[in-house]
Amino acid sequence: MPESRDRLVREVDFAAVYARSRTVGVYTDEMDRALFGSRVSEPVQVERPGTVFGPGFRPGLAGSRRPDLQMSRRRNPSRSRGIENGSAARSGDRRSDLPSWYPRTPLQDISAVIRAIERRRGRQGEGDGLEIGTPAVQGLRVSVDSFKTPNPVHLKQGKPKSPYTASSSAIKISPVPKLGKVQKLIHEIANQPSPGAECLTPEKKLLNSIDKVGEVVKQELEKLKRTPAAKRDEREKRVRTLMSMR
Amino acid sequence: MDMDYAHFMVTQGRKEKDNSVPSSPSSEAYKRLLAETLNLNRTRILAFKNKPPVPVELIPHQHTASASSTTHQAKPTKPRRHIPQVKQTSERTLDAPDLVDDFYLNLLDWGSSNVLAIALGSTVYLWDASTGSTSELVTVDEEHGPVTSVNWAPDGRHIAIGLNNSEVQLWDSASNKQLRTLKGGHRCRVGSLAWNDHILTTGGMDGRIINNDVRIRDHIVETYRGHTQEVCGLKWSASGKQLASGGNDNLIHIWDRSVASSSSPTQYLHRLEDHTSAVKALAWCPFQSNLLASGGGGGDRTIKFWNTHTGACLNSVDTGSQVCALLWNKNERELLSSHGFTQNQLTLWKYPSMVKTAELTGHTSRVLFLAQSPDGCTVASAAGDETLRFWNVFGDPNEAAKKSAPKKNQEPFAWANRIR
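ok -> structure tokens follow
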């Protein structure tokens, strides 16, 4: 049985009504009635505010729909306008925490992924405390110089230089050369099940590069320890200690 | 410990070695026999002994004062269950893409056959909790969808699916076949479903509640009118005598089949108007038959308890955020509520004190739907962040399995009426 409709034909200025309701921010009943007649049969979510429905639009026809509406509905299955759902403007384009490139399979187990994302979020919360802008980068340059770490550019080549060379050539921690390697890293991570590269801001990249530099320094120190001269020194030290205990 | 022997063993050995006098075989034998009789053959000084004797009590039990004797009793009357804290993190998380972020729908249900049904967009998926496998039940046409409610029948095999176009489909999950479509009852989407044996009660956006007998052709047996806006919460009591419904009109109605059938002007038994927002969260108490818990939406944020015989409100608790769903613990006196903005948490309350026992966080958007496993231990929650999380909030499933297993062994021939 067809539903009853408001039979009185009223002149409605759709644009004005729409503009009014837009300023309020909530999809009002008034707008409902103006656009769809007195009785709303189906919930329709207006994705793009620009679309205005002409007088030719008839409510209650389940089949006919404007194509753009249909497209947006497929992407975001319609959410009714009720008060509990908040304003219509709050359309969730990407409601999920998963990165956009992550393949979505219904009911796939993503426990590990979500845990990793939560951990990263926790770390980000801590990391935001360090304000990293250009002044800090300068500071980094200075501190790295004093350490006389190997040239970070060498990381890419994989050839470590001895850190104790006198050359204190300007060790730049410029983010530009780093990006190449870091982007490669991102792709690597993307191929693995574990994520976490979607929010690599320049600051994050810097921090990552600092970590890498630290690791390389540690490796260099280990290597030094293994050289014969270092071993001899250590042995002598030990012998001296033992002799003193006699 | 034999102190003499110990002393001998420790000191005597040296003397023997100093003795260089050659000894004849007979004297050797004599020495050996002597050692045996004197029990000097032991190689060990220290040896294990039996249990120490029970210490003799100076004053026996029975004669002490009664106060101290009670301390020797085995256990207090109420054994504490939750010695370990309720685990605050989800056991597992499943992806739920295209989950409709609509407060008024009911897209999640866990059937008695331990299969979880969830509607993502226009498709209903079944997840077998025992195997962890996923299967697609049905994808409805774009024009009919999206799916607005799912509900398992009590047998755990049949499932009802409410659609946006006001129809309800009945499916057999075992054979993956559609059994029938209920049409003509509602005029708007069917957002809530509830089973009562062979009666499927449907609630629509038109405010109507319809009882459908799924066995007969003319399925509409009764229509309850009372709500003026969408019916989002619908729950039958455990006895099947009373039906609770909550709507976007902030009302809760209690329908009693005996009252409704009589020709009274209003079909409902009670109309509860205390909430100031939409009521979707409804849960009947498993250990008190006429107790109903209800939760209000964003503007109300309270959980209220009702006596459904008298219609009186027993208690009201402000939770601080939108209450989307409620679940009772079948084994303990606890209530679980799921919330929206800002924390999107699940809160576990002790009943009747309504003290917060635990708060489970993890979801990053409002926790819209809750479902309970058939064994009563695990709760599944689906939220607007497109994830489905599982929480062992009502108990450890392993412990529950252990508890239930010995019960089965008690009566080996329970299935037989006579043994002969």
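Chain A touches chain B through 32 residues (CB under 8 Å).
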